[in-house]
Amino acid sequence: MKTKLLAFSIFAATAVTVTFLPTIQHALATTTPSVVTPITLDPIDLLPVQNEQPKIEVVFVLDTTGSMSGLIDTAKEKIWSIASTMASAQTAPDIKMGLVAYRDRGDAYVTKTVALSNDLDSMYAQLMDFKADGGGDTPESVNQGLYEAVNNMQWNDDQQTYKVVFLVGDAPAHMDYQDDIKYPETIALAKQKGIIINTIQAGQDAATTANWQQVASLGNGDYFQVEQSGSAIAIATPFDKKLAELSKKLDDTRLYFGNKEDKKKQALKLSATKKLHEESSDASRARRATFNSSKSGKANFLGDNELVDAIESGRMDLKDIPEEELPQPLQTMTTDEQTAYIAKEAKQRKEIGQDLKVLAEKRENYLRKKVEADGGARDSFDTKLYGSITAQAKEKGLVYDDDSAKY
Asked: Domain containing 69 — which CATH number?
């Protein structure tokens, strides 16, 4: 039976072909063939699309012995300016900072570390606690400080990330500790990870000069020397106090949601913010406000699981958040009341943010004129540091304008 069906199928197909073959041949003969235009690709079209935000990771390895009080104070005042300068790239980068404080064996500590993070408030709150003490002799535990920075920080594996260490101190490395990992070995590992090591010498000690220059040379970085005080640009402006006040009001619009573990982390961040508002100078708070108003500063301002931004941006819906994970004030409200409360906070945040940006621009213009009037501060800590950052970051595709430096 199967054989008969197969024979019938072949017969039918043949009959159809014979019947319609002349018609098909005529159609093919009288139809103009369509012309296919070849597609020419520009070489740039073949490159992968770069959608990711560029990244910068910076770790300061800071001598905190007694002679370094001036530069420690400089670091406390200038961290936000440094962050704002890095944030001013034409494509706003994601910025993380970390810190290794070092002294020497026999002091209260050899090293203390603050992890790499885009939560700069928490990093700054810990920096505020560092005081110059100990030391009194040279050399210092530079080897241990560099080792901690290169090996114990959670550096990004991406080779396109601008990863940099700034070694800041006024005394050379102890090279006589038998159980120490010496800096040439640490720097070799830093190269493998794509980390640049720059050195900033405070004062004019000749042994430190030779040591710091070698570290920078091995680390593919820059060496520069500043006065023991840090010789940073420290200019108060008429806008600092108001910017500090606006920054506090803006911080007060933040609402956080999440589980118990999330809320513990959020409480630490809020505590760090409270501390810097209570203890840091108006000028420092103004610098922070300037950074937070930038695209790069948004991560530091908001932190994780910030409710107003999550709802207003559409990333979250109130109905999807369990009641116990909402901020305490919202847990007893109806959904309509919650929505109205969040909308009010969002409106206030927008208005404060607009005022803050206007004042930040006025402050920047004021500072730029003052710096130019003083001769451009060519030998200042700021200018040397910014020069290294902008030149080195360019190798990773980050482009800065000539007037990128923030003060």
From this structure: 3.40.50.410
Say which amino acid occupies 161. Answer: T
Q: Tell me, letter by letter, the H, E, C secondary structure of 164-202.
A: EEEEEECCCECCCCCCCCCHHHHHHHHHHHCEEEEEEEE
Query: Does some domain include residue 44?
Result: no
Q: Report the side by side order of strands in the sheet with 162-169.
A: 111-117, 94-102, 55-63, 162-169, 195-202, 223-226
Contact 60, 367 (CB under 8 A): no
Q: Residue ranges of the alpha helices (H) in 219-304?
A: 240-251, 260-279, 282-292, 298-302
Q: Using DSSP, state whether 126 is helix, strand or coil.
A: helix
Tell me the pLDDT tens digit for each residue of 309-354: 999 999 999 999 999 999 999 999 999 999 999 999 999 999 999 9
Domain extent for 308: 240-368
Residues 110 and 175 in one domain: yes
Supply φ then ψ for residue 38, to 5 degrees.
-65, 145
Tell if the pTM clears 0.90, that is, is over it: no
Are residues 63 and 145 located together in one domain of the fold?
yes
Question: Residue 224: enclosing H or E segment and its boundaries?
Answer: strand 223-226
347, two tokens: 């409106």
- If one counts the domains in the chain, the total is 2
Residue with tokens 């910068």: 56
Tell me whether residue 280 is in a domain: yes
Judge if 213 and 261 occupy the same domain.
Answer: no
d(CA 106, CA 275): 30
C-alpha to C-alpha distances, 244 to 178, 240, 284, nearest whole angstrom? 49, 6, 8
Give the type of residue at 365.
N
84 and 165 share one domain: yes
- 107 and 196 assigned to the same domain: yes
